[in-house]
Amino acid sequence: MRSSNPVFSRRGFSRDTGGYAGFDAQQAGTATNPYATNPYAADPVTGMPQAPARGHVMTMDDVVSRTAMTLGTVVLTAVISWIALPVDPANINKSYGIAIGAALIAMVLALVQSFKRKPVPGLILGYAAFEGVFLGVISSATSTYFGGGVVIQAVLGTMCVFAAVLFAYKMRWIRVTRRFTGFVMAAAMGFMLLMVVNLLFSLFGGGDGLGFRSGGLGILFGVVGVILGACFLAMDFKQVEDGIAYGAPREESWLAAFGLTLTLVWIYLELLRLFQILSGDD
User: Fold this and answer.
1) What do you get for the CA distance between the two ends of the chain, in Å?
2) Does 107 or 25 have the greater pLDDT score?
């Protein structure tokens, strides 16, 4: 399985198509035990490792610590931007301009990292910092126009989605397979295409475009967006699990943190939009 997340799409933590390059390559066109060629897997008879444990490999502690650093940077810069860049209803375009500028910089840094062969912590933390500025301004604007409860609901909702998907994944209620990945990828591409079309209609035609982000249709698409985010989260968990199983280099934990942050930001923004619509309907 290859993750849909662009951070992982060029890495081979796959159980189905071959393991991490150089550590668990399988013969092309053959279906074998995913651990058959892994020199660090336990012997099927004795249960003992077939080779000494290799240092400098990715562990769950590495993923947790890197993810905490990346998400911590997002939260910190979001809080700072909320306080330092208060939204003025009389000059809302300035606030939105800052948010869009920060989002564009974050997107560029994310794309640069996605095309790097190795993770660059500076790029990842830079992305997190500018993404935090964007989220801080957008959240502040949401609090100004819809009330602070909407932001709190989106934060709590994101945490609940994360916890629920993690629990379901650990219980094996969610199984990330080729079919699952293909379906989610196709759905995500269609979702993004519709959002781009809606945005273009809103820019050139005014109003809410085709209405995909308002009213009943907006609620439906918001729910779909959250579900897609949850599916991406399951794929990220799968990649982390495979990376640890195949002894990926420790530096890959930065990519795991990057991928999880991208997905959580997606879920938060979808929930924020969803609760904005629900609040406006009250």
Assistant:
1) 43
2) 107
